[in-house]
Amino acid sequence: xxxxxxxxxxxxxxxxxxxxxxxxxxxxxxxxxxxxxxxxxxxxxxxxxxxxxxxxxxxxxxxxxxxxxxxxxxxxxxxxxxxxxxxxxxxxxxxxxxxxxxxxxxxxxxxxxxxxxxxxxxxxxxxxxxxxxxxxxxxxxxxxxxxxxxxxxxxxxxxxxxxxxxxxxxxxxxxxxxxxxxxxxxxxxxxxxxxxxxxxxxxxxxxxxxxxxxxxxxxxxxx
Length: 223
Known about the structure:
alpha/beta; single chain
């Protein structure tokens, strides 16, 4: 059931939902952990994720907090299309590390299924790099993601960041990388993530597919 999925989700991400449980506990009589888990409300859960994201300061000192939160948010947004996130997945015999790697579990239809079967872009695994920067991500971060892509792991990657002042310039950089056959890379900013979460709270399904689909269209068509 949806309630069971929410309970399982909060159990998998204790650092993300520690404050959420404490806040819930102050609103009602003292509850056991088991009782408290069953009080999870999806709207309140989404509000908590948005609040946590907005509260994390930009910069290197909060990079780990941002990384941990993004694992929880992205799993919530993309489940069941992306599953089994692995934090700091090591590749090349441990010489390189990817912030998060998801397995592509998408059923027929939807963005990740279409990406692999209609656009012929390998994406059996989806690498994600999380950048809690105070300024725009640049070519260096794009090149880093290129180094994480391969035909065996996948040729599609996501870079999350707090914001991008010159979005059109970064999309053009992603487009250059794609047309040079280095792989398809798209950014997701706080604004994108909050929009997706807000739509989920409103009951709008698959808005994440619309956001990613529009970014991919711009990259492929050089817009």
